Amino acid sequence: MASEDEANAAAVAAEEGAEAPEGKNWRRKGKHDKPKPWDEDPSIDHWKIEKFDPSWNESGMLEVSSFSTLFPQYREKYLQESWPIVKGALKEHGISCELNLVEGSMTVSTTRKTRDPYIIVKARELIKLLSRSVPAPQAIKILDDEMNCDIIKIGGLVRNKERFVKRRERLLGPNLSTLKAIEILTGCYILVQGNTVAAMGSYTGRGLKQVRRIVEDCMKNVKHPVYHIKELLIKRELAKNPALATENWDRFLPKFKKKNVKQKKPQTKEKKPYTPFPPPQQPSKIDAQLETGEYFMSEKKKSAKKWQEKLEKQSGKAEENKRKREAAFVPPKEKTAGPSESVKTANDNSEIADIAKSLKEKAKEFRKNKAQENVRAESYLASNEEPRPKKKKSTKSK
């Protein structure tokens, strides 16, 4: 019992940071959390990924690990053509691969020559990318240690199919300009295909994280990809300035407010009053013929009747076309004066007649006054010479 009490006391003392009694070499909690001499060494890059050396694992793998994935039917022809390239790339790392065209699957598995234990995971990502329509030369780059991939599922983010297609097109942009801008700024390869987005890049440069955020924000209608591109451009310029490298960049980044756009209200149909009885039976073609008596006609009479209806329809159409053509030559109707306008015109005519009469009287008076002023005195004096009598013309008798 005494030894148990001492052990408990020592454990409590170690937790509380108290020193152990002299002569006792008890284990202290967290004794390995001391700073190591290589932690602060500037010549060592702790984030560097060293290339695998086969001498690290000379014995190879103990068990066989294998992964398989299905591929769509439209990829069958391309995979069949490019399979020798894929097989050669995997053979260098000691991985065997199989293309099963009957089941539509690809399988990768380790062999006795496999030394790198993580290469089978890379091979699994390779066949995943190949099934998602990534070209074989690009997909083989995933076998490098510094290259990683992320397959983002976007099919379940939007329910409406039309909205899903529109938002997926936002990622592409006109002539794939938006997608190319995202690829340049993030340093990743991006392929939008069907219900997934396949991205290849590195996690150290935060490229894959940025791509996932851009894709999810676009599909959830949180932020347009163009706004993300603007932010990335600003961050790239700020990173060049050493004075702002350690500061917070929120004051430099643009803040976009989401605007609610009014959507068109769906047209609701008027609900008819509910009746438990079904609608009446519509008359069939034979019933309509029985009512008109056409059912009992001979084939000759039926064809004659159809021909007559056709002629009547043509004549009616011709008359309508003729009326439309003649309508262009019909003069417009003139406006007829109403009773109020006729009275007004009569009053105007009487005023004009009075003005004309007064002007005539003034003109007569003016002429009379002028004649009186131009009277000569010689006209009142008798002249000495008498006027000669005019000779009468002789008329000849017939």
UniProtKB/TrEMBL annotation:
Looking at the record's lineage, which domain of life comes first? Eukaryota
Q: Which UniProt keywords apply?
A: Nucleus, Ribonucleoprotein, Ribosome biogenesis, RNA-binding, rRNA processing
Show the segment(s) annotated as Disordered: 1-44, 256-285, 299-351, 363-398
Q: Under what name is this protein listed?
A: KRR1 small subunit processome component
Q: Hey, which family's this protein in?
A: Belongs to the KRR1 family.
Basic and acidic residues bias (residue ranges): 35-44, 299-336, 363-376
Q: How does it assemble?
A: Component of the ribosomal small subunit (SSU) processome.
**Subcellular locations according to the entry:** Nucleus, Nucleolus
Q: Which purpose does this protein serve, as stated in its record?
A: Required for 40S ribosome biogenesis. Involved in nucleolar processing of pre-18S ribosomal RNA and ribosome assembly.
> Which InterPro entries is this protein grouped with?
KH_dom_type_1_sf (IPR036612), KRR1-like_KH1 (IPR041174), KRR1-like_KH1_euk (IPR048550), KRR1-like_KH2 (IPR048548), KRR1-like_KH2_euk (IPR048549), rRNA_assembly_KRR1 (IPR024166)
What organism is this sequence from? Panicum hallii var. hallii
The KRR1 small subunit processome component first KH domain is annotated at: 65-145
| GO terms of biological process kind | rRNA processing
Q: Which CDD domains match?
A: KH-I_KRR1_rpt1, KH-I_KRR1_rpt2
In this chain, composition skew of type Basic residues spans 256-266, 389-398
Task: Offer an example of a GO molecular function term for this protein.
Answer: RNA binding
One GO cellular component this record assigns the protein to is: small-subunit processome
Residue stretches making up the KRR1 small subunit processome component second KH domain: 147-240
Q: Spell out where the chain crosses the membrane.
A: none
Q: Cite the source lineage.
A: Eukaryota, Viridiplantae, Streptophyta, Embryophyta, Tracheophyta
